[in-house]
Here is the input.
Amino acid sequence: MKKPTTTTPIPTNRIVTLDEFIIRSEKDFDYATGELTGLLRDIGVAAKIVNREVNKAGLVNITGAADGAANTSGDTQQKLDVYANEKLIECLQNSGECCAIASEENDDIQLIPPVGSKKSHYVVMFDPLDGSSNIDVNVSVGTIFAIYRRHSSADGPATVDDFLQTGLKQVAAGYVLYGTSTILVYTTGRGVNAFTLDPSIGEFCLSHRNMRIPNNGKFYSVNQGYYSKFDLEMRRYIDHCSDQNYGLRYIGSMVSDIHRILIQGGIFLYPSTRKYPKGKLRLLYECNPLAFIVEQAGGKAINSQLRRILELEPKELHQRSTIVIGSPDMVDELQAFIERYSALPL
Ligand code: AHG
Ligand code: MN
Ligand code: MN
Here is the structure.
């Protein structure tokens, strides 16, 4: 819950580190006990450790698939998926600022033992490494996270229901993009800010204040290789993009595609295919956090049935969803195609 007060001024004339920014912003929250601040800092530390490993991935024996491993969704686990997952859990465990986590790489939720007498009110969900099929070819990957306040009493263990909340209930969400530079982008529902890692001082420094997504863009982002497997409305929309001379950009790491769209505008879609009739991307730790960020920056995120992503009621941890996300005018334009051509009841 946010206080209707003004935001603590953030200096504009000097470097502001992520830690300073988080601490200054903490005063804007009703539950300003420092827990959320601590959680965001833990994630920042984990991001630096993962970044270090991603950067030297070609030098050490950490690329490629993990031995015989597949996650609960049946995807092959890369060694760095496993590494990033372990580091995030470790960092969150050390401070005890959250009581449980859920990850793409774990079938079930994991309880975090309390540290001392601290009672934690938060749960954290994440995709430790998004786009991990890109690792071996040196293309950008990311980490996505979402933080919720637990429903259950802080006196007992967290339950899976603490995680099955609509995206509207997110207290904070963000991503880290390990790209040409490493950047951490997050929101607590008061706009979106980005922090670029300065490797010379080992700190994330405020680099993009109050990010706003352009209303329109010149790029669309979709795995067009599945064109013939898409429903009619999606094929018609893709034809329209081509007619309009929109450029096609698709990295295969949703974080990277969304980051480009946040800065340059555009639209990303992952509709249903024959292989993934309900969409491929996971609602809780891919779609919801990115939808929260994009909406906070002035964009839109809906599914193929035109429902707002953030309002979808999750039924299970690893639930998938279709998604259309990006610049508001482009999402509206696609919506018109769905309304016109969809065979499904909307
Ligand atoms: P992950 O590496 O966490 O499994 O996520 C990959 C996701 C997403 O990042 C990307 O946009 C999409 O899968 C790519 O899927 P396709 O190869 O089917 O296009
Ligand atoms: Mn992913
Ligand atoms: Mn992943």
